[in-house]
Amino acid sequence: MSILEYSATELKKKLEAKELTSVEVVTAYLNQIKEYDGEIRAFSFVNEEEALNQAAEVDSRRKRGEKVGLLAGIPVAVKEVLATEGQKTTCSSKMLENFVSPYNATVVQKIKDEDGILLGRTNMDEFAMGSSTENSAFGATSNPWNTDYVPGGSSGGAAACVAADMAPLSLGTDTGGSIRQPAGLCGIVGLKPTYGRVSRYGLVAFASSLDQVGPMTRTVADSALLLQAIAGHDRLDSTSANVEVPDYLNDLEKPLAGLRLGVVTEHFGEGLDEEVRQAVNDSIEVYRSLGATISEVSLPHNKYGIAAYYLIAPSEASSNLARYDGVHYGYRADEREIWQELTEERHRLVADGDERSATSPLVKMYCKTRSEGFGAEVKRRIMLGTYALSAGYYDAYYLKALKVRRLIQKDYLEAFKEVDLLIGPVTPTPAFKTGEKTGDPLSMYLGDLFTVCTNLAGVAAISIPCGFSKDGLPIGLQLQSPQFHEQQLLRVAHMYQTQTDWHIKRAPLAS
Ligand code: GLN
User: Fold this and answer.
1) pTM of the predicted model over 0.85
2) Mean pLDDT to the nearest integer, 485-496
3) For residue 511, what pLDDT is reported?
């Protein structure tokens, strides 16, 4: 077997047995990136030199018999939204194009502390707003299964690099589906942990009450490994939960006697692609044959999920993104252009005898900076959010959305009284073509129908590969659990992978 074919868990064993060195592993991945990333464009930065140095250092420590960490010598790719000391943390936005982070996000620090190798930074939708990675200011990423198609988003680069064997492990973030949806569309595993399970410190905020960091991997066992490394309470993030972290890896093989799975009625309605329906139904049968009890459950407020999410997330975004004002850090519009435009305005106003309505230089600087620094989708969200929060509309939109959010949370609590986990599709359809939905934001938003409620309720969910469309595009299966039940989610998803081989299939890369 070649190095690239090993899962991270297998690599870990080979490295521990000294059958492989980390330098060999990192070199193999760097070569794969060189060969294929020109076409896929999953990475925005490859940390070549430092990764090799780090690998050599871990190798020599291991050779000397020193204790090494959980991820020792294994490469990890990191989404652009996670602050990494000394590296650009651009959020795939022109606004932060030249921003070099002075500190590490807690998850990045944890990977370093566990001796994982930081392989590079992955492309994403600008500020994590999107479902296709087409909103990156630095160009779109392609789906490794067919480069005419999107990889999903916003963690599109994070998913594509794993699907194209350019990284064994990667970190994504999920506010309304951004780990699970690209994982589903690229045929890999994506885990969105419970809100609070993983620290958000150093995760550049999009919607703070929904954002969560999680693993994107080839196998469920690898997700357990990466979650083990990043989970836990962090005093730097007051929303991180002080809940003990179980041993995800040890528990993986524990049998699941009496498992109760709930099929979400609302996830099988109108708009669900027939091939997706079939693949998910087949997976449900796999669980039935393993002895699980299958029943139907309802999440009656699921249908309001998109509306509530697309009010709450933009509202939080409009507030979070206020900090990009051209003063503190990041992009600032060209000062000569600012003065020139102000002068032209002045001339016009003088001619009209209306000098008093002249724009102040500061306001002009803010407006020009933000108009030029943000892309169209980010601006759309800021406007939507500002509107929903403004006096007179707050009660009608934002507050109403919060009430709906509470009802959605209650639906989950009710459902989890009946069943252990929920099962259904990740997305209504397999991947769509690049450019197909860019002119129609609403149809892009509707694709998040099965993922946003998880975030609104703060529960955990995993996406695992469960089939292919006749066009050869991957299809994802979603399992959702109550808060802090990642352990069970991983065990049940792992059980599926012991019975099926969808996760072993590799994307047909053209060199
Ligand atoms: N697609 C959703 C959105 O555009 C989710 C994004 C995310 O989870 N970061 O907001």
Assistant:
1) yes
2) 97
3) 55
pLDDT, tens digit, for every residue of 162-172? 999 999 999 99
Distance 282 CA to ligand 1 centre (A): 28
156 C-alpha to ligand 1 centroid (Å): 11
From the number of C-beta atoms within 10 Å of its C-beta (0-12, 13-18, 19+), residue 479 rates as: buried
Angle 446-449-451 from CA coordinates, rounded to 5°? 130
* C-beta of 114 in contact with ligand 1 (< 6 A): no
Statement: residue 262 has pLDDT above 90: yes
Please state the atom number of ligand 1 nearest to the C-alpha of residue 206: 9
pLDDT for 332 equals: 97
Are 141 and 160 spatial neighbours (Cβ–Cβ below 8 Å)?
Answer: yes
Mutate to test the pocket of ligand 1, among 79, 123, 125 (most ligand atoms within 8 A of CB): 125
> How far apart are alpha carbons 145 and 156 in whole angstroms?
13
Per CATH, the homologous superfamily of domain 3-254+483-504 is Amidase signature (AS) domain (3.90.1300.10)
Could you state, in order of their start, the residue ranges of all structural domains in the chain?
3-254+483-504, 331-373
Which atom of ligand 1 is nearest the CA belonging to 155? Answer: 9
Choose one of 82, 93, 155, 178 to mutate for the ligand 1 pocket test, by most ligand atoms within 8 angstroms of C-beta: 178
Ligand 1 neighbourhood includes 133 CB (under 6 angstroms): no
Q: Which residues contact 506 (CB under 8 A, 6 or more apart)?
A: 165
Helices (H), ranges, 356-457:
361-373, 376-389, 400-418, 441-446, 452-457
Nearest by Cα to 389 from 474, 320, 461: 320
The chain-wide mean pLDDT, for the chain, equals: 97
- Interval between CA 187 and ligand 1 midpoint (Å): 19
CA of 406 to the centre of ligand 1 (A): 20
Atom of ligand 1 nearest to the CA of 130: 4
CA gap 141, 149 in Å, rounded: 9
Band of residue 311 on the pLDDT scale cut at 50, 70, 90: very high
Which ligand 1 atom lies nearest to the CA of residue 381?
Answer: 10
3-state class of 408 per DSSP? helix
pLDDT digits (tens, 9 = 90+) for 215-229: 999 999 999 999 999
Cβ–ligand 1 distance for 313 under 6 Å, the answer yes
Residue 374's contacts (CB-CB under 8 Å, 6 or more residues apart) are: 93, 94, 95, 126, 321, 324, 382
Q: Which residues are catalytic?
A: 79, 154, 178
What are the residues whose beta carbons fall under 8 Å from the beta carbon of 382, sequence distance 6 or more? 314, 317, 318, 321, 374
Of the candidates 102, 96, 65, 98, the one whose C-alpha atom is nearest the C-alpha of residue 83 is 102
pLDDT of amino acid 256: 77
CA 376 to ligand 1 center in whole angstroms: 15
